[in-house]
Amino acid sequence: MNHTAELIAVGTELLLGNIANLDAQIISQGLSALGITVHYHTVVGDNPQRLADALDVARKRADIIITTGGLGPTYDDLTKQTICQAFGRELQFHPDILETIRAYFARTGRTMPENNRQQAMLPVGCTIFDNPVGTAPGCAFCEDGVHVLMLPGPPRECRYMFEHKAVPYLAFLTDGVIVSHEIRIFGMGESHVEARLREAMTTLTNPTLAPYAKENECMVRATAKAPDRAAAEEMLRPLVEQVRETLGDVVYGVDVGSLEEVVSGLLRERGLTLSAAESCTGGLIAKRLTDLPGASQVFRGGVVSYTNEVKTAALGVPEDLLAERGAVSEPVALAMAAGCRRLCGSDLAVSVTGLAGPEGDDRGNAVGTVFVALDWGDGALCRRLDLGPGRGREHIRNAAAQHVFDLLRRRLLGLPV
Amino acid sequence: MNHTAELIAVGTELLLGNIANLDAQIISQGLSALGITVHYHTVVGDNPQRLADALDVARKRADIIITTGGLGPTYDDLTKQTICQAFGRELQFHPDILETIRAYFARTGRTMPENNRQQAMLPVGCTIFDNPVGTAPGCAFCEDGVHVLMLPGPPRECRYMFEHKAVPYLAFLTDGVIVSHEIRIFGMGESHVEARLREAMTTLTNPTLAPYAKENECMVRATAKAPDRAAAEEMLRPLVEQVRETLGDVVYGVDVGSLEEVVSGLLRERGLTLSAAESCTGGLIAKRLTDLPGASQVFRGGVVSYTNEVKTAALGVPEDLLAERGAVSEPVALAMAAGCRRLCGSDLAVSVTGLAGPEGDDRGNAVGTVFVALDWGDGALCRRLDLGPGRGREHIRNAAAQHVFDLLRRRLLGLPV
Fold this sequence. Notes:
The structure is a homodimer.
Chain A: E1 4-10, H1 12-15, H2 22-34, E2 37-44, H3 48-61, E3 64-68, H4 79-87, E4 91-93, H5 95-107, E5 121-123, E6 127-129, E7 138-143, E8 146-151, H6 155-171, E9 177-185, H7 190-203, E10 208-214, E11 217-226, H8 229-247, E12 251-254, H9 259-270, E13 274-278, H10 284-290, E14 299-305, H11 308-315, H12 319-325, H13 330-344, E15 348-354, E16 369-375, E17 380-386, H14 392-413
Parallel strand pairs in A: 1-2, 1-3, 3-8, 13-14, 13-15
Antiparallel strand pairs in A: 4-5, 6-7, 7-8, 9-11, 9-12, 10-11, 15-16, 16-17
Helix pairs in contact in A: 2-6, 3-4, 9-14
């Protein structure tokens, strides 16, 4: 049987734009993996009448309703009451749940405010989803053929509760699976990717192929629906291969987290270590590398040289070179990488120096001019980037980091740089 | 007249959870500032029938409909066609728009693929929103008393087009304004904040007060609706003051971007410079500081010392101290800060050393044990944090950075540390 789910996020803070609906993303990913189709996401405020209206619409077009938010301890958390009214259930007090909440506060060195008591009220006869990562338990029940699941709103709690409580609850309802593979691309824009793969994208129905633009890269998703995972994989294998062949070495990975994850993997395989000297990226490259668990196996550290004095004192970039050529120049980028490699004792070192904005320099370099360099002891290379001022500081910093990782990947794989 | 808007985001990638609906957040913030109420967000896939259904529902309950997405050059971008069908308009080809798109490609050194041609098709008689930051123009028209606005999907483009094109279009429709102030808090949890402010939060109707949990901090939002901004501000002033008095020095700012922004401002006011030595945060502190435009006035740089060798080579932390006390210890944190201050020639230096996970160390320190230190030349201090293993690597790194900025803020303001 095919199931259709609808997500309803409850919270005025969403309608005011204070936060984005990350819960919908988390849950949609998981439902897709379970082969449960999602046709709509809805967001309503902390308003019982409009939530009741949204529930009325949703129960007509979906057989699984998942709500997020409105389970908190504060006066405007009304999800449980409103759902119980809509589906004709009472709320029941659970003393054991209250004790669990009290213990959670104690464990984190705090005392429980009395208003958390309402979190121990749950619909009669529901399946309780206890919450080890927060105070609001979730729950689920089935009424008139519609499964209603309630999850807490904070994304960290929602993710945990969805993965550990809702997924097992939903798994028994489903048959068939949807499997996707993400083909990640750096160095070719979405329009060009789509132009090259247009025929497959427009004619295929199962499996399918669809393009997505991402920040400073793009992605093609291949998706198949089949009775089981093995059958779906069988359908996807030739399609993924075709995309790789059509696009060439701009494809940097399939089902990988990021370009830096691929680079870290390559370094680990080869037993090599890396360090980074960063000017305009200001720690972003180090931060992205150390976001990965186990980073210390390949990343030794680096220097954020946001001033010329630090470039000289920490990296040994000669003062007269800075004076002659300016901080944003190829020889300075190369000297930063070489100095960083020596300082950190790493096999390779990368460097970035450039102008992320808001202003250019006094040598006529425009915002968006960036030099990225790589030094591997026996040699070095430098790439000049003109990232353009139009897209802003964050874009320039991210793009520069992407190019650094691309340089590393190409060098480690022996691809043209 | 009061206006009610509904946002419809179009894109299967949202229903699959590949991306979050950031556009809804951006637009909701802007509508709130214009005094336009938003009651619902809806997300539908790239499916003309379900988009048509969503439009039918929306036009009954809102007089402003704003769609995002589905204006791209690919075959599954169907928003304009579907809306035109629903509202009885034709699409018209605009050769001048096509030239603008072609010029955009040329400016970024690329040639325009032919499929971008469909982006030059727009509803007859619409207001065209030309798009200098991407290829998809937006547009707006009014039919049967409902204003329909179409904006591109990529958040960067959506933000620009909303702020520069949609806001001026909408401004003439509205009367009255909603003004909000965000009171930002570090060092007190949402439950406790709410418990202290419960009376105001539950009894006030205009202005209102509402609490929000954020990652590693929390926030209280005061909102007033009035005929003009001055009247709204008049209503908000005593309320914000009351919150400040009730909560005390955990309030770090009102309408500020972040804790690091406040710290940067304090450093700039006092003419002081900062540097950072980071172990487990791996560049995050430097990255957050250099996210701010003009960071070079206060931030000189720093060292990411992800290995003991770099702690010694770059920061001068004695080898025997590392051997005796371990890298995750108070004396090492203090030596890192002192060494960083000397290396970078800054007035102050901060340091972080700790265990972000996945594993503890061989001295019995658990994941989540972090030392943060601050050195100001004439003195230094260190704070030990037990951030707990439960919330994961990213949480620990973010929390450690927050504590570093809190330490700096308290030191600079002479508050208890």
